[in-house]
Amino acid sequence: MNEVKVAAAGVLDDPAMTDGMIEAVVAHEMGHWADPESAASIKRSVIVTYSCISLGVLVAIGIAVGTGVVDNNTLMLMFLAVGAGYGCSIALSPFLHWKDEYFADRFAAESTSPDTVVSLMKHFRAQESRFAPLFTFANHPSRTRRIRRIELDSITDSEQQTATGDRGRPLPPQ
Question: What is its EC number (predicted)?
Answer without folding.
Answer: 3.4.24.-
